[in-house]
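A quick word before the example. In earlier lectures we treated sequence and structure as two separate objects. From today on, think of them as two lines of the same record. Here is DUF3103 domain-containing protein written that way.
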Amino acid sequence: MRTAYLRATMVALVLAGSTVATPAAAANANTVTQISDRLAHALSVELTDQAVRDRVVGLAPLDGIDPQKIDVRGRLGATIAKANADLLAAKGLPAGSARLAELRLAHESMVGPLRAGVAPLVATPPNDDNATGITAYEPGGKAQTLSTASIPRQPVLFVEVDVTTAAQLGMAVIQRHIKAPQPQVTVTAGYWASQITSIRFGDVQEPWFKGDAEIFAIVGGFDLNGDVRADTLTLPYLDDEDHTYYPNQVLVHWNRYKYSLADVVFMEDDGDTNYLNLAKALVAALAYILDGGAYVPLVNAILDAMPTSWWTDDPDFVDACYALTRDANWTRSCAGGNGTLGIKPFWVSEL
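And the structure line, produced from the sequence above:
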């Protein structure tokens, strides 16, 4: 899923998650896109081998395939391992924690030509939704430029990041960095939580070369000691825009909070989010938020604290919902008008 709205001050929260947001990051030779591009070139060289091409056809429709599966001759092991290690570093995730590189056929219409023997190109999708061209590699490694104006008839294999796995690991990174000492909570019979009854994000015209992204949420408020608290969770079922989901997922655990108020920010990882940088930015922002005896909206405080040098039109910010309360039982639009959230009280019983 991609979004293309609210591209001014509210999107500042996302800057920490973009590997191309700052000049320093742009100068880094190991951005997610650059790493994926190098692997795409290496895979294209192997496609001159008919046995490799046959393996690719046998794996069609190729949706989230480990590149190792097409290494028929065993020549790509070191290259794939290096790419996976570099991707983890670029995304601020622990070394050795996952294999993030994956292959995807760019569009379902390409399955037929691929199975009919048309040689595929290999590329990595650009981060920019408005990109006009994509560098793709022919079997053997020769580069050509594909127009993004229309879907190519020739099959295209995209090398990209497994964002579902990355987001799950990233939540742990964020939580580890922003977690402050927590008060002891005694639960005698259970506690109240807020449960998502429905959730929906608006429809946009996303380009053909973009795959699914992983939606995650940051829920914030004040803990029982009066310190800022931020909890994270992934919403892996949110695959399609303009579609309502009914997950019954717990969003807020109220036994962790001092006030019956919390805010939630929805974000997406479309491949380039650096979770370590995001965690550090959150820590820096939360350090300035103090409990003055009244609830302070977490979203406002974080956005105000972000440096203006991080502003961008990167569309990784999805929406924010303010002032969730423990007894809230409603369905309403979030602040940006893109998200619609339904919640209700939910009693979590002790075993």
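Notice the following. Residues 23-161 form one domain. We will return to this example when we discuss secondary structure assignment.
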